[in-house]
Amino acid sequence: MNRWEQLTGGRSGEEYAARFAELAERGQDVHGEARLCATLVPPGARVLDAGCGTGRVLIQLAQLGYDGVGVDQDASMLAVARRNAPRLTWLQADLADFDPAAAGVGSGFDLVVAAGNVFPLLAPGTESAVAARLAQALRPGGLLVAGFGLDQEHLPVPPSLTLADYDGHCAEAGLTLTDRFATWDADPYDGDGYAVSVHRR
Q1: pLDDT of residue 116
Q2: Which regions of the chain are under pLDDT 70?
Q3: Contact 149/86 with Cβ under 8 angstroms?
Q4: How many other CB atoms sit within 10 Å of the CB of residue 143?
Q5: Phi and psi at residue 71, in whole multiples of 5°?
Q6: What is the pLDDT of residue 15?
């Protein structure tokens, strides 16, 4: 069981979707992740949304012309994604053993995005395996983009993953850091409690 399941019991899909719908109705920008991804790869690129949740990021990318697949372990989140975008491909799987080829979608993705604190909410001890799986899903030269909190203020669980740890897992998976930002709006990283990291295979 990952930390997300421990936190929510795997029944949070509708609540999560409602929270972002309310933010959007209040005029807040809820598409920063998709916008940043769109600056990194051109329309038509293949994108894997790892830990896709209710599909917010991937649905926006699809509307911008990207070819995407979403994967998540939480059935309640995927139920919302499938309802909102039934024509997209949504897969239920644990990222620690996710195999795109076995799932019938193939590897060779141009970009993998892991938004929404995916890495800090993994089952403890699986971070390296997940980084390796996501790296294997990329084509040579493809990008892994992950944004997550580093302190209690930016996380729903106690912090457990440092940037040094994450970079180490990525390096073991054959990935090289190319950029790091403080937000999905690409503000320069200043050592604060949230980081968006871009690694290249």
Answers
A1: 84
A2: 1-14, 16-18, 20-21, 23-24, 28, 30
A3: no
A4: 23
A5: -135, 135
A6: 73
pLDDT of residue 149: 96
Q: Counting Cβ atoms within 10 Å, is residue 149 exposed (0-12), middle (13-18) or buried (19+)? A: buried
Which pLDDT score is estimated for 31? Answer: 80
C-alpha separations of 99 from 6, 154, 194 in Å: 24, 30, 29
Place of tokens 């054959």: 174
Instruction: Dump the DSSP string for the chain.
Output: --HHHHHHTT--HHHHHHHHHHHHHTT----HHHHHHHHHS-TT-EEEEET-TTSHHHHHHHHTT-EEEEEES-HHHHHHHHHH-TTSEEEE--GGG--TTTTTS-S-EEEEEE-SSTGGGSPTT-HHHHHHHHHHHEEEEEEEEEEEE-SGGG-SS-----HHHHHHHHHHTT-EEEEEESSTT-PBP-S-SEEEEEEE-
The number of angstroms, rounded, from the C-alpha of 185 to the middle of its chain's C-alpha atoms is 16
> Tokens 């600056």 — which residue?
39
**Encoded amino acid at 186, one letter:** A
Alpha carbon 180 to chain centroid, angstroms: 15
Phi/psi region, residue 36 (left: phi>0; alpha: psi -120 to 50; beta: rest), is alpha
